[in-house]
């Protein structure tokens, strides 16, 4: 499990054991073979729920492209295709249950989703930290980790609202997180969380079988190209409806603006603004050495779980390309966004003076920050317990150099005056109460 500054970590022995057991179970006929076939997956989800309406049919096209890429490009191991079956089944069941709830409670779709505050930044640029600081303020709505894992309540949820049953979703989230830590013990270093911690809405975009989450766990280059060329507006519309459902399940006022964030927004700002035209945007910026190295590390640590053929250098090149595309798309989209609708926040500024930086953010939002300060201080204390081990990575682990990153990202660095660290060639350690968050 050790890691040098030039060698990426190996996967946990748990995955090798699981892979062996699944293969043995299939050989003995006790574990069903993987069937990553669209018709089978749709029918299986319908049989489990007794429902047939999957909602907006837009998802079929990315689903087709993703399944083809998973089958032809991802080179999944037995643990990988087993987990893929579970994943697709969950997404499809959630779509069926969402439509069931919308029909049962039409008022859900009438809920307002006005003036969301959307944090937009490259992966690993401090978006999680800023998101959780703002989510500490009860004047905003936010998702929690268990809602990202299970955004759609079960059909007995009205009994939960009546106080007759416990919501099973947080219990399930604890189990999922426990397995995730066995599969990848570095999970808490890369992205510390807990069932009730504020979490991003990426799970709502993947409900349309769309987004970078799939690229960060599977080698699916043809799917990546499809997503990069697609108009994601339908996925964002579906995400908005999922937010309405979650707000209803939280029994929160629809007048409270949502705090949103996921790196996917860097690629899809036009789609986001088509659906949320009054969004207020907070852009985060960080040294691209850190962004690219950490993004590659995150993708590596996911991909090695599901495939025996992960290539560290290929992952490094891909996430350098992807990070560059994110900042290019973001800079182009900003040209048509009014200046009073956006603000820029440097990762290093939050490191040096979180309170002063947040005061500037609150001035932008036209809100008094003082009522939120106790919650923010509580979060910063809690963050120390969430992350006990630093996230270590380096560009060299993924066949990259600082000079290569600087050359590729030079326009972005210059435009936003991003502070740069002197390259050392040593493994980068992200630690500390503030640095603990991505």
Automatic annotation (TrEMBL):
Cross-referenced SUPFAM superfamilies: P-loop containing nucleoside triphosphate hydrolases (SSF52540)
Top-level taxon of the source organism: Bacteria
Pfam families: Sulfotransfer_3 (PF13469)
Coiled-coil zones: none
Molecular function terms from GO: transferase activity
Keyword set, alphabetical order: Transferase
Protein name per UniProt: Sulfotransferase
Organism: Erythrobacter litoralis (strain HTCC2594)
Lineage: Bacteria, Pseudomonadati, Pseudomonadota, Alphaproteobacteria, Sphingomonadales
């Amino acid at each position: 499990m050790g890691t040098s500054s030039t060698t990426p970590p190996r996967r946990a022995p748990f995955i090798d054991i699981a892979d062996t057991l699944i293969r043995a179970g299939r050989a003995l006929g006790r574990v069903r073979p993987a069937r990553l076939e669209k018709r089978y997956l749709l029918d299986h989800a319908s049989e489990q729920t007794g429902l047939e309406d999957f909602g907006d049919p837009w998802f079929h096209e990315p689903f087709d492209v993703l399944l083809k890429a998973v089958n032809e490009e991802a080179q999944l191991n037995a643990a990988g295709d087993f987990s893929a079956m579970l994943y697709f089944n969950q997404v499809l069941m959630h779509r069926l249950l969402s439509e069931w709830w919308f029909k049962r409670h039409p008022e859900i779709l009438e809920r307002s989703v006005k003036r969301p505050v959307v944090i937009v930044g490259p992966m690993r640029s401090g978006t999680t930290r800023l998101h959780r600081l703002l989510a500490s303020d009860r004047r905003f709505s936010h998702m929690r980790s268990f809602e990202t894992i299970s955004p759609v309540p079960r059909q007995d949820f009205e009994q939960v609202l009546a106080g007759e049953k416990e919501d099973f979703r947080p219990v399930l989230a604890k189990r999922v997180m426990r397995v995730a830590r066995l599969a990848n013990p570095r999970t808490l270093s890369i992205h510390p969380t807990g069932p009730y911690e504020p979490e991003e809405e990426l799970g709502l975009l993947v409900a349309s079988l769309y987004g970078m989450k799939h690229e960060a766990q599977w080698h699916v280059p043809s799917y990546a190209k499809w997503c990069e060329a697609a108009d994601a507006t339908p996925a964002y519309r579906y995400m908005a409806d999922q937010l309405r459902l979650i707000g209803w399940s939280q029994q929160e006022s629809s007048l409270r603006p949502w705090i949103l964030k996921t790196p996917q927004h860097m690629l899809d700002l036009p789609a986001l603004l088509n659906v949320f035209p009054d969004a207020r945007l907070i852009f985060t910026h960080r040294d691209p050495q850190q962004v690219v190295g950490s993004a590659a590390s995150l993708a590596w640590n996911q991909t090695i779980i599901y495939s025996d053929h992960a290539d560290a250098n290929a992952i490094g090149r891909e996430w350098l390309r992807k990070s560059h595309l994110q900042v290019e798309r973001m800079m182009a989209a900003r040209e048509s966004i009014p200046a009073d609708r956006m603000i820029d926040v440097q990762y290093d500024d939050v490191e040096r003076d979180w309170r002063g930086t947040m005061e500037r953010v609150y001035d932008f939002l036209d809100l008094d920050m003082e009522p939120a300060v106790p919650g923010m201080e509580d979060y910063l204390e809690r963050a120390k317990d969430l992350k006990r081990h630093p996230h270590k990575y380096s560009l060299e682990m993924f066949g990259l150099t600082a000079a290569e990153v600087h050359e590729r990202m030079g326009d972005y660095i210059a435009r936003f005056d991003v502070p740069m660290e002197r390259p050392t060639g040593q493994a980068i350690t992200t630690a500390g109460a503030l640095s603990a968050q991505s």
